[in-house]
Amino acid sequence: MSQLTVLIYTDDVEFAHMVVARWQTERTVPTFLISSDSSWEQDKDVKYDLAIVGPLHSDDPVAAFKKIDMQGRPGVYVTSRATTGLAVRNANPRVLVLNDYEGWVNAVVLLAGEALRRVDATNRAKKAEQSVSAAQRHALLGKYMLDMRHNLNNALTSIMGNSELLLLEPGKVSADVREQIETIHSMSMRMHEIIQRFSSLETEMQFAERQSHREMPISMHSFVSGD
Question: Which residues are CB-neighbours of 152 under 8 A, at least 6 positions away?
Fold first, then answer.
């Protein structure tokens, strides 16, 4: 699981210390941001993936959740009062409400840890979708370049042919113009080499694809037979 950040929002320092200390015993430990009503203004720009809200001096957890701006992120609220727990649940359906009973810290770490694993899985899925989308765009661009190489070759052949004809008649152009024509011819040759490399890469990729199709049945057979 990638490194994620947990916001612990409370005015009770002991509450925050208990959650952090308990989480330190787990195999995977996130980064913690501990904040409160009085310090939130300087912390509000920090990104977090999950919020744990504990005891507050204002005793208004609904306002606290609005203040930290959940934006669809999961959260856990620990309370000893059923009325405030119900108000938070109604205002924030994604927030898990836990009663402040003996052993609550274990439940917080268990539930929050599971929520973070889901966040991590969602993030990975989004990155995979972005990678697939980028690969599709690159593939489309590559296909277009391969489809256009013949037209480019024809244009380059014309440019190189005409520049060579001009270079064969040095008396018709000045030295400066001749130098410019030589540059045009040289750059045309370089572009031609690049296009030829596209063709070479296509051939290599087609060969590698054919080889992978040939080897796949053998690999599957070895796996099934235990060889």
Answer: 191, 195
Residues 122 and 179 in one domain: no
Residues 94 and 159 in one domain: no
Domain that residue 173 falls in:
132-225
Residues 44 and 122 in one domain: yes
Q: Is 179 left (phi over 0), alpha (psi -120 to 50) or beta?
A: alpha
Cut 0.90: pTM above it: no
Distances (CA, A) of 141 to 135, 136, 146: 10, 9, 9
Asked if residue 70 lies in contact with residue 50, where contact means CB atoms within 8 angstroms, the answer is no
pLDDT digits (tens, 9 = 90+) for 65-122: 998 988 888 999 999 888 888 999 888 888 999 988 888 999 999 999 999 998 888 8
